[in-house]
Amino acid sequence: MKKKGILFIISAPSGSGKTTLCSGLVDSMGGLSRSISMTTRSPRVGERDGMDYIFIEKEEFLKRKKKNEFLEWAKVFNEYYGTPKRYVKHLVAKGQDVLLSIDVQGAMKIKRLGIKTVYIFILPPSMAKLRERLVGRSTDSKKAIAKRLKVAKKELSYLPRYDYVVVNKVLESAIENLRSIVIAERCRIGRK
Amino acid sequence: MKKKGILFIISAPSGSGKTTLCSGLVDSMGGLSRSISMTTRSPRVGERDGMDYIFIEKEEFLKRKKKNEFLEWAKVFNEYYGTPKRYVKHLVAKGQDVLLSIDVQGAMKIKRLGIKTVYIFILPPSMAKLRERLVGRSTDSKKAIAKRLKVAKKELSYLPRYDYVVVNKVLESAIENLRSIVIAERCRIGRK
To answer: Nearest residue of A to residue B166 by CA position?
Structure first.
C-alpha cells in the first residue's frame, strides 16, 4: 500500500516574497515537487517551457478548459493561466507531495480532487506588523489604522479558510516553518 | 493579546526510545518546557527533585488527588504518579508550550483543560517494521505474524486517537519530525 502525496497550496498577498520562499522550500527538501501551470502568454526572458510554465496556444487552452482539465484557471490581462489536474494527480498517486503557489482568489476555486490538501497562507512582514496592531495596542492615528485595516482586511479575510499561517519576517525561519509544516503533515494521522 | 501555549502529549509503547527523544526535542528548541510529574516513589540515583520528578509523601499526593489537582494520575507498584494541572496551566498561559510524556492509557485519561492539546504517538522501529507488515506482503509464518499482531494491536489501537505518528527509526530524523510538529502547530490557524 503506497502512501499518497499531499497537495500543499501556498497563497500570499503580493510583495510577501512568496516566489523566493517556494523556491527555498522545494530546493531544501526531497519528495516535494512544484506544480507547473499552463499559460497562453509568451515566455519572458529566462523562462523555460516545461519548467517555469507550460506555454500553450490560446485555442489549446480553451479546449482543455472545456474538457475540465484544470484544477483552477484565471484570465489576467487577456492571457490564461491554469493548473493542470492530471499532473498533480499523477505526482500525488506516486507518493510525491506537490506545491502549488496560487493567489487567494485562485486557491478558493481549487476543485476538490479527493486528495489531502493543506492550505498555507504567507504574511509579508508589513502585514505581520499590521496584524500585531490589529490585536494589540497602537499609537497610530485612528485614520492611519483604518486605512491599513481596510487593505489588510480584504486579504486577511481569507485567513480562516487556511490551515497554517507563516510570517515571512526572516527568510530562513519562514522557510523552516514551511519545511516543518510539510514534515508535520507527513506525520499526520487520518489523512485522506 | 498574548498567544497561549500548546500542550504536546507524547506517548509510546515501551522500548521506543521516548525518553531520549523527548530530551532531544526539548534541548533543541526554545519555548518548549517539560511537564514535571509528582510521584510518591523514592528518587533513584541521579534523579533530582523538581527536575525529573517532584517527590512528595503519599498523604500529600492523596490530598492533592482529592482536590482534583491532577490532569491525570496512575498507581504503579503501589506508588502514585500524577501530572499537576496548575503547573501546565501556568506555563501555557505564559505562552510556553509544554511537553508531557505519558503512556497511552494515561494520555486517554487527560482531562480537558480548555487549552490546545496535540497528541503525538511514537512508534519504535520494530513496531514500524510490523506496521509495514500489517499493510504489505510478508514472508513470516502465520503464527509469528499472529503473535506480533496481537502485541501490536493493543498499542496501535490507540493510534487513531492521536494527531501525529513519528517512527523512531533514526534518532536525529525522529527528533526533526517532532520539532517540525511543534513548529507547524505554532503556525496552525484556528487553535483553541
So the answer is: A187
Tell me which chain B residue has its CA closest to the CA of residue A132.
B1
Which H or E element spans position B80?
A: strand B79-84
Contact between B42 and B53 (Cβ < 8 Å): no
- In tens, the pLDDT along B99-128 reads 998 877 788 878 677 788 999 999 877 766
Instruction: Work out the end-to-end distance of chain A between its first and last CA atoms, rounded to an integer number of angstroms.
Output: 14
Cβ of residue A162 closer than 8 Å to a chain B Cβ: yes
| Cell numbers that stand for B84 in this block | 499537576
ipTM value for the complex: 0.79
Query: Is A170 in the B-facing interface, judged by CB distances under 8 Å?
Result: no
* Residue (of A112, A78, A93) closest to A6 by Cα position: A93
Give backbone dihedrals phi and psi of B190, rounded to 5 degrees, phi first. Answer: 85, 30
Cα–Cα distance measured from residue B9 to residue B161, given in angstroms and rounded to the nearest whole number? 12
- Can you list the domains of chain B with their CATH numbers? 7-187 (3.40.50.300)
Task: Render pLDDT for A98-142 as a digit per residue (tens, 0 to 9).
Answer: 999 887 778 887 867 778 899 999 987 776 666 565 565 455 566
How many CB atoms lie under 10 A from the CB of residue B88?
23
d(CA B92, CA B7): 7
Q: Which three cell numbers stand for residue A73?
A: 484557471
